[in-house]
Specification:
Rossmann fold, single chain, 2 domains, 8 helices, OB fold (Dihydrolipoamide Acetyltransferase, E2P), alpha+beta
Length: about 350
C-alpha cells in the first residue's frame, strides 16, 4: 500500500505563513502532480511530505497512520531531484547500488536489483561509466534507477526534467509515466510545466501563493476551471477573457463590452441584468464562419504551426486568441469571422474571479 492524506497542512517561517491548509487525498498507485509558478509552495510541500521540512500544523497520514514525527528514512520514499544528485566519483553501477549498500543488503541481491533497474531504464550498457560521461537524460535515468531499486511505497520527483532540452523532456516524460504505470508506485511529482501536468497526472494540485487553488483530473481543471487563475494557467494559447455586463435580448443573455461588442452567452447559466462578468473562451472553441454569421477578427499575428493556424487578434477592442485546425478553411489575406460554442465557454464573476457556471 502507498496511500497518503494531507489534512490541513500549514507551514510557517518566522511567523509568516507560506502554506495555507492544504488538503489532498492520494490513492495507492496514483500519479499526483503539484504544479504552480515559482514560489507557490509546491517544493516546500514536497519536502514536508518526505520529512526534510517540519510540518507547522496539520496531519500527514501515510497508510492510515499519522506520520508527522516519523523520520525521513522510515517514510519509505525515494526522491528524484532536478540536479540528479549523483556521486561524481562513482560509476553508474555504484550510484544505483549505494542506497542498498547502506541498508547492508547482500551483495548478490544488490547486483540483481541494480541490473534489473538498469535494464528497465535502458542504461545497462553504461554501468561502468562515470556521471560526467553521460548525457543529461542518461544521468536522470541513473537518478531514477537509484530511486526504484529500493522499491519504496512512494516516488517523489522535484522538477526532474527542468535541466533537459525540449525534445529530451518529451522522451523522459513518457518514460517516467510508463515506468510508474509498470511499477504501480504512488508518485508525487512537482513541476511548473503545464504540459507535464496535463500529460502525466492522474490528479493535479494547482497551487498559488501557498494555497491549493483547484484539485482534480487534468480534464477537470481544463474543462471545468473553478476560477480565472486555473483557466489562464492551463492551456496554450491562453484562454480569451472578455469583460462586460450581461444584457438580455428576448430573454437570451449576451455580454456587452465597453466598446459595444456583443458576445453570446450560455443561456443555461444563471445570470442577471447588468451583472459584471468575464467570459472565457478557449482558442480551439472558435470556428471560421461566413461574414453574416459571426464576429469580425482584427488579426494582429498569425502563426502556422503545421497542425494549426494560431491567431492573436481583437474582436472590437477585446484581445482574442484563436487556434484553428489546419482542416478549417482559412485565408489569412481575407477578413476573418468567427463564432464559438457557448456551451463550452466559462463565465466568471468579475469581482471574485470565481466560476459562475
Amino acid at each position: 500500500m502507498g496511500t497518503m492524506e494531507l489534512k490541513n497542512i500549514k507551514k510557517d517561517y518566522e511567523g509568516v505563513q507560506v502554506l495555507h491548509g492544504i488538503n489532498v487525498d492520494i490513492k495507492d498507485g496514483e500519479f499526483v502532480v503539484l504544479i504552480g509558478e515559482s514560489g507557490c509552495g509546491k517544493s516546500t510541500l514536497l519536502r514536508m511530505i518526505c520529512g526534510l521540512e517540519e510540518i507547522s500544523s496539520g496531519e500527514l497520514i501515510i497508510d492510515g497512520q499519522v506520520a508527522n514525527e516519523v523520520s525521513p528514512q522510515k517514510r519509505d520514499m525515494s526522491m528524484v531531484f532536478q540536479s540528479y544528485a549523483l556521486y561524481p566519483h562513482m560509476s553508474v553501477y555504484d550510484n544505483i547500488a549505494y542506497g542498498l549498500r547502506i541498508l547492508k543488503m547482500p551483495k548478490g541481491e544488490i547486483d540483481q536489483k541494480v541490473r534489473a533497474a538498469a535494464k528497465l531504464l535502458n542504461i545497462g550498457d553504461y554501468l561502468d561509466r562515470l556521471p560526467k560521461n553521460l548525457s543529461g537524460g542518461q544521468r536522470q535515468r541513473v537518478s531514477m534507477g537509484r530511486a526504484i531499486v529500493r522499491k519504496p511505497k512512494f516516488f517523489l520527483f522535484d522538477e526532474p526534467l527542468s535541466n533537459l532540452d525540449a525534445k529530451l523532456r518529451v522522451v523522459m516524460r513518457n518514460e517516467i509515466k510508463s515506468l510508474q504505470k509498470r511499477l504501480k508506485t504512488t508518485t508525487i511529482y512537482v513541476t511548473h510545466d503545464q504540459v507535464e501536468a496535463m500529460t502525466m497526472a492522474d490528479k493535479v494540485v494547482l497551487m498559488d501563493k501557498g494555497y491549493a487553488i483547484q484539485i482534480g483530473t487534468p480534464e477537470d481543471l481544463y474543462d471545468r476551471p473553478n476560477c480565472i487563475f486555473t483557466a489562464t494557467f492551463l492551456g496554450s494559447p491562453n484562454i480569451s477573457l472578455v469583460k462586460g455586463n450581461v444584457k438580455f435580448v428576448k430573454n437570451i443573455p449576451t455580454l456587452l463590452t465597453q466598446d459595444g461588442t456583443s458576445f453570446a452567452l450560455n443561456p443555461e447559466t444563471s445570470l442577471s441584468e447588468n451583472q459584471e462578468i468575464i467570459l472565457g473562451i478557449r482558442p480551439r472553441d472558435f470556428h471560421c464562419v461566413n461574414k453574416d454569421q459571426g464576429l469580425k477578427v482584427n488579426i494582429k499575428i498569425h502563426e502556422y504551426t503545421g497542425a494549426e493556424n494560431v491567431i492573436y487578434g481583437q474582436i472590437g477592442e477585446n484581445e482574442i486568441n484563436i487556434a484553428f485546425s489546419r482542416k478549417e478553411i482559412f485565408d489569412k489575406n481575407k477578413d476573418l469571422y468567427v463564432t464559438y460554442d457557448v456551451k463550452k465557454t466559462h463565465i466568471f464573476d468579475s469581482k471574485t474571479e470565481k466560476i459562475i457556471n
